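Technical annex, item 7. During the second reporting period the consortium partners agreed on a shared format for inverse folding records so that results from different sites could be compared directly. Each record opens with the tokenized structure and is followed by the designed sequence. A conforming record, contributed by the partner at site C, is shown below for reference.
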């Protein structure tokens, strides 16, 4: 047995950024170099541990060996109804866990955050406050992918919202406050809908019955495992008929309630993804947030929406998701075509990449709508791949803006002469974004479209048109920046410094690695898809 099994490895990964916050709070404000070094070292700790965890992860048995669960409190509930239950309680708990769906995104989070920490060393003001919010943001993101309790998930989700609000509003560009407010409003509405859905889930399916002899204790909690089990079959595991269980738990999950909850979760996480037409806030963030924060936002935070939709939407409501497959696929095609067409019309590089993210998230929706193993693998692969590619592209955008003071396509050109390394990485990242074989972008798109082709061929054909448009707008932007005539004022620009080159090389290396050896990721995801979806679907079908 690995030494990791003897340690609370998930808690160590989750709480390690908070140790960096403590160190930063003790450092004097004028020691900016010490602060930057401390932040980079702090982000490397969860990165190394998540790598270790990924290597040690048993694909056959899943991540049960690493799960952590501790009860914080048992709150008594008053029940006037005469039942055979001795006690009703509500359980607050600290529950962490991993599987093949969350582990790749956990590794993506630690990797992109560490690279963004290197990109953030060029922050010009209020270093201590920036890096404290930066590490709090990482804690929230890690918690989202590790939490196995609905309310714990919600708390970490809100931490990311608060941290992003300040990081955008204080350290962004000219319209930063407007972008931060728009971010807060849209995501706040999504969070409110999500919280309401979680409360309904706990009230209807978040229960556990502890029966010792004649004493029956009925426990409500936000435990994901309990809800998952009860959604599959709410009575069989406690040897009670649905009628008997109904006398104890009056909040039964009806078909109508399932559709209402699925719709609420689709809207809540669709805002975060984002799904058209809930996308306008994202454009402001991509344009106004500092480069290191946009790396995290495009590389990780957008993936939280897709992860939530997969974890709480498709897994808990497979029948509703399957019946909603065509509308979900249509939304995916709209995302793809809308994002691609508007990306082609943009004259500003950051907006090209922002609309590109909308288009690529449409590919994820197609993989989810396929509702089969290939499509779901493609959706998760696309999340990881786009996270790496978009983080790399916005890292390059930050380097270009620092040197030229602009990201307008009309004002840029011929940068390959003065910045051959940055231009070469930009060209390779662009090729990955348009889905060139041998790079990670191709695998995610191919698997998602292949999965959808089995059931919805006509929508797959429409989505392929968006893939073609992607090649058009990516090459248009990249070639305009790197080749052609170079303005005289850009003739003396310097190429990437070491602190910029390192994250570029690391992110590019992973893009190539996943493109050449996709089984590194697909094997891990496949076993979780089989383990989570097949038993649930078989149980529902048998019922």
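Designed sequence (site C submission):
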């Amino acid at each position: 047995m690995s030494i990791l099994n003897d340690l609370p490895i998930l808690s160590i990964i989750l709480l390690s950024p908070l140790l960096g916050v403590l160190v930063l709070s003790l450092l004097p404000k004028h020691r900016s170099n010490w602060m930057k070094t401390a932040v980079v070292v702090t982000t490397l700790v969860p990165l190394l541990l998540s790598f270790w965890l990924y290597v040690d992860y048993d694909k056959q048995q899943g991540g049960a060996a690493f799960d952590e669960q501790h009860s914080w409190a048992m709150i008594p509930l008053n029940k006037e109804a005469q039942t055979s239950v001795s006690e009703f309680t509500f359980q607050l708990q600290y529950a962490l866990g991993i599987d093949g769906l969350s582990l790749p995104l956990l590794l993506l989070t630690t990797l992109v955050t560490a690279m963004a920490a290197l990109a953030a060393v060029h922050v010009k003001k209020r270093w201590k406050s920036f890096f404290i919010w930066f590490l709090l943001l990482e804690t929230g993101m890690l918690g989202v992918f590790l939490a196995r309790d609905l309310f714990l998930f919600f708390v970490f989700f809100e931490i990311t919202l608060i941290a992003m609000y300040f990081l955008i509003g204080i350290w962004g560009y000219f319209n930063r406050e407007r972008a931060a407010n728009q971010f807060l409003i849209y995501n706040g509405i999504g969070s409110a809908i999500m919280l309401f859905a979680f409360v309904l889930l706990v009230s209807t399916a978040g229960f556990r019955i502890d029966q010792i002899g004649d004493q029956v204790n009925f426990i409500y909690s936000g435990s994901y495992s309990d809800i998952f089990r009860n959604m599959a079959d709410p009575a069989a595991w406690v040897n009670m008929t649905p009628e008997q269980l109904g006398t104890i738990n009056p909040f039964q999950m009806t078909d109508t309630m399932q559709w209402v909850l699925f719709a609420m979760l689709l809207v809540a996480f669709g805002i975060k993804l984002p799904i058209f037409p809930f996308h306008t806030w994202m454009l402001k963030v991509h344009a106004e947030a500092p480069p290191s924060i946009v790396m995290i936002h495009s590389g990780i935070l957008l993936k939280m929406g897709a992860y939530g939709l997969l974890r709480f939407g498709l897994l808990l409501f497979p029948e509703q998701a399957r019946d909603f497959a065509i509308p979900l696929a249509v939304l995916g095609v709209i995302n793809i075509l809308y994002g691609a067409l508007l990306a082609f019309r943009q004259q500003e590089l950051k907006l090209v990449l922002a609309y590109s993210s909308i288009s690529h998230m449409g590919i994820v929706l197609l993989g989810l709508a396929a509702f089969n193993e290939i499509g779901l693998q493609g959706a998760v692969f696309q999340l990881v791949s786009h996270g790496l590619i978009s983080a790399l592209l916005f890292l390059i955008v930050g380097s270009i803006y620092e040197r030229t003071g602009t990201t307008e396509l009309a004002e840029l050109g011929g940068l390959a002469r003065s910045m051959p390394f940055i231009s070469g990485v930009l060209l390779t990242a662009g090729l990955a974004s348009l889905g060139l074989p041998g790079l990670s972008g191709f695998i995610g798109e191919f698997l998602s479209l292949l999965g959808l082709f089995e059931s919805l061929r006509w929508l797959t054909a429409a989505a392929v048109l968006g893939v073609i448009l992607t090649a058009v707008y990516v090459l248009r932007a990249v070639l305009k920046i790197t080749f052609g005539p170079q303005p005289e004022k850009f003739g003396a620009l310097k190429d990437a410094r070491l602190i910029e080159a390192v994250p570029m090389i690391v992110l590019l290396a992973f893009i190539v690695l996943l493109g050449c050896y996709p089984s590194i990721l697909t094997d891990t995801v496949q076993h979780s898809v089989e383990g989570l979806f097949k038993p649930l679907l078989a149980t529902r079908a048998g019922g």
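The longest helix spans residues 373-404. Confidence is low (pLDDT under 50) at residues 539-543. All partners now use this format for quarterly exchanges.
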